[in-house]
Amino acid sequence: MAIYELAAEPLPEFEDGPSVSGCRLRLRALVAIGHGPERIAWALGGGTSARAVQRILRGQTKEIPARQLVRIRRLYEAWWDRTPPERTPNEKAAAAAARRRARRNRWCTGMGLDDDLLDEPGYDPHCAWRPAIGIGGATDNPLKVRRPYR
Fold first, then answer.
1. What are the CB-based long-range contacts (under 8 Å, 24+) for 87-95?
2. pTM of the entire structure?
3. Is 71 in contact with 26 (CB distance < 8 Å)?
4. Helices in 9-132 by DSSP H: which ranges?
5. Which of 36, 24, 17 is nearest to 124 (CA)?
6. Taking a C-beta distance cutoff of 8 angstroms, is the pair 35, 140 a contact?
7. Ramachandran region of residue 124, left (φ > 0), alpha (ψ -120 to 50) or beta?
8. Burial of 72 (0-12, 13-18, 19+ CB in 10 A)
9. Any bridge partners for residue 137, and if so which?
10. Contact at 8 Å (CB) between 82 and 137?
């Protein structure tokens, strides 16, 4: 009976799923490889605004709904090693601005994060920003978010 009671106890936050601090680091890593807050918000869908992404990046958000935490983790898994498209002057400028922001703030790319520690409270990566070229281009809708027709 004691074994059953132990198994029924809730797991710590970092074992239960992505943490707020882990998701902040994930989003910062996406910015470091060139994905801007607007692009990230668009990919997350569900009414996520660029302003909400900015607040997470700045560490101004203490709580994020569980569904959003999962979306951020899934987006990170899809894009951590993928660069954003730079087909147009606007896309190039947005990617360059994202990389400048990451460099200025010393945010590392996904290669600098330890995935096993990412969601543990207090985890602080030991590296800072470094240029990254990725392994290819990121898709525009990796989470298959349904969008209304325009």
1. 94/36, 94/38, 94/39, 95/34, 95/35, 95/36
2. 0.85
3. no
4. 13-16, 20-33, 37-44, 50-58, 66-79, 89-105
5. 24
6. no
7. beta
8. buried
9. 83
10. yes
Per the CB < 8 A criterion, the answer to whether 49 and 41 are in contact is yes
CA 132 to chain centre: 16
d(CA 45, CA 62): 20
Of 3, 57, 67, give the one whose Cα is nearest residue 27.
57
pLDDT top residue among 24 and 1: 24
- How far apart are alpha carbons 88 and 26 in whole angstroms? 26
Q: Evaluate the CA torsion angle 126, 38, 143, 10 in order and state its sign.
A: positive
pLDDT in tens, 10-65: 333 434 678 999 999 999 999 999 999 999 999 999 889 999 999 999 999 999 99
Residue type, 63: E
Can you say how many angstroms the Cα of residue 44 is from the centroid of all Cα atoms in its chain? 10
Confirm if 26 and 125 have CB atoms less than 8 A apart: no
Rounded to 5°, the CA angle 16-17-22 comes to 125
